[in-house]
């Protein structure tokens, strides 16, 4: 394995591959505010003990809101372009289920460059529950997958996850700040090796390694 010690490269522009890209500043603030409100709604619905009358009224309001905004739909694969503090661009699908800015189902995980890779802080609510009071293992894997893929992408080597290996070391609590870290550990031809962790109070609750296979730019 060759340790990846190249300087950080610019991520290829997806427009060159015919993909549709929306700059972050073109997303209406009303949409991001609505997304936050819907996240709160999902949490409220998941945990409510309201009575039938209130539930029926809330349902009618939600149905009306859905009808109001359903007339136009963005294409499923649309990407968002963000400009990093260092001026380079990064891309991700708008509705990515882990990080998507317009997806109320995403927590969302917001990764930033840190040290030799990426880092995020996140607190997950009861919507992401598996065992009582704990984060679902599938969501931990999804968060690690996103962080590991993001680390490869941030190093200028975006690709697809070919293999993901997760070890759950200790229970990951809900409603508690978690730290997510990821970095590239090596490369070999199109193979990008990545590793990452989820921590609570400095203790690793889960760690993952993945093989990302870089998109083939040769066409
Ligand atoms: C910022 C955005 C972050 C996004 C994070 C989220 C990431 C995701 O969730 S991606 C979605 C889940 N992943 C997928 O759906 C991928 C499905 N699989 C595929 O499309 C293909 O198998 C793919 C692209 C991974 C590899 O196919 P292909 O491009 O034909 O590569 P291929 O020539 O077979 O393999 C390239 C190298 O990788 C190796 N390889 C491929 N798959 C594996 C595997 N599963 N295990 C081990 N090695 C593998 C091959 O042996 C080969 O190695 P070498 O260079 O030594 O010969």
Short description:
One of its GO terms (cellular component) is cytoplasm. With 219 residues, the protein is α+β, with helices and mostly antiparallel strands. Helix content is 25%, strand content 31%.
Relevant terms:
3 helices, 219 residues, globular, binds octanoyl-coenzyme A, disordered N terminus, alpha+beta
What does it look like?
- It is a single chain.
- This protein is of the alpha+beta class and 219 residues long.
- The protein has helices at 29-47, 52-69, 137-154, and strands at 21-23, 79-83, 89-93, 112-114, 117-123, 159-168, 177-188, 191-200, 203-214.
- It has a six-stranded antiparallel β-sheet, covered by helices on one side.
- The protein binds octanoyl-coenzyme A.
- It is a peripheral membrane protein.
- It holds the Pfam family 4HBT.
- It comes from Haloactinospora alba.
Which descriptor suits the 3D outline? globular
How many strand units? 9
Strand residues, percent: 25-35%
Assembly of the depicted chains: single chain
What percentage of residues falls in helices of 4 or more residues? 25-40%
Bound molecules: octanoyl-coenzyme A
Q: Mean pLDDT, as a whole number?
A: 92
Coarse structural class: alpha+beta
Distance between the termini: 25 Å
Strand arrangement across the biggest beta sheet: 4-5-7-8-9-6
The run of helices and strands is: EHHEEEEHEEEE
State Rg.
19 Å
Largest sheet: 6 strands, antiparallel
Number of helices: 3
Q: Which parts are unreliable, with pLDDT below 50 for 5 consecutive residues or more?
A: 1-8
């Amino acid at each position: 394995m060759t340790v990846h010690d190249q300087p950080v490269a610019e991520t290829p522009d997806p427009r060159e591959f015919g993909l549709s890209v929306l700059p972050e500043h073109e997303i209406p603030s009303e949409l991001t505010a609505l997304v936050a409100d819907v996240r709160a709604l999902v949490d409220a619905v998941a945990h409510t003990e309201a009575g039938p009358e209130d539930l029926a009224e809330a349902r009618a309001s939600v149905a009306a809101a859905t009808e109001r905004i359903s007339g136009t739909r963005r294409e499923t694969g649309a990407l968002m372009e963000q400009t990093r503090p260092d001026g380079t661009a990064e891309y991700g699908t708008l509705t990515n289920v882990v990080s998507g800015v317009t997806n109320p189902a995403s927590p969302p995980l917001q990764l930033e460059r840190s040290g030799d890779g990426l880092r995020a802080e996140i607190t997950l609510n009861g919507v992401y529950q598996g065992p009582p009071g704990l984060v679902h293992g599938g969501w931990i894997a999804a968060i690690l997958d996103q962080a590991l893929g993001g680390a490869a992408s941030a190093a200028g080597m975006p690709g697809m996850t070919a293999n993901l290996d997760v070890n759950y070391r200790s229970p990951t609590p809900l409603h508690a700040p978690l730290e997510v870290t990821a970095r590239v550990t090596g490369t070999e031809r199109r193979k990008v090796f990545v590793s990452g962790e989820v921590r609570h109070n400095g203790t690793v609750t889960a760690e993952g390694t993945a093989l990302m296979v870089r998109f083939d730019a040769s066409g």
